[in-house]
Design a protein that fits this description.
The protein is an all-alpha fold and 84 residues long. It has one domain. Helices cover 86% and strands 0% of the residues. The N and C termini lie far apart (105 Å).
C-alpha cells in the first residue's frame, strides 16, 4: 500500500468517525481511563473508611465522657464536704 493510499484511508476513517490505532493510542487511553476510575473508586473507599473511623472515635469519646460523668456523680457526695 502506498503512502498516498494509507493517508486517504486515514482521512476517510476520521471523516467516518473511525480512527486507525497503529500505535495503541486508543488502548492507552482506555487503560488511563480505567486507572483513573479505579483511583477514584479507591479514593471513595478511603473517604468512607475515614468517615467511619471518625464516627467511631467520636462515639467512643462520648462513652468515655459518660463513664467519667457517672464516676464523678457517684464520688461527688463524698468529696463535697472536703471541698467546702
Amino acid at each position: 500500500m502506498s503512502q498516498g493510499v494509507g493517508a486517504e484511508l486515514q482521512r476517510r476513517a476520521r471523516r467516518d468517525g473511525l480512527e486507525l490505532d497503529f500505535f495503541g493510542r486508543v488502548a492507552s487511553l482506555k487503560e488511563a481511563a480505567l486507572a483513573q476510575f479505579l483511583a477514584t473508586e479507591e479514593s471513595r473507599k478511603a473517604t468512607q473508611i475515614s468517615l467511619v473511623a471518625a464516627v467511631a472515635s467520636g462515639w467512643l469519646t462520648v462513652l468515655a465522657d459518660e463513664e467519667l460523668l457517672d464516676i464523678t456523680r457517684r464520688l461527688w457526695p463524698r468529696a463535697r464536704p472536703r471541698c467546702a
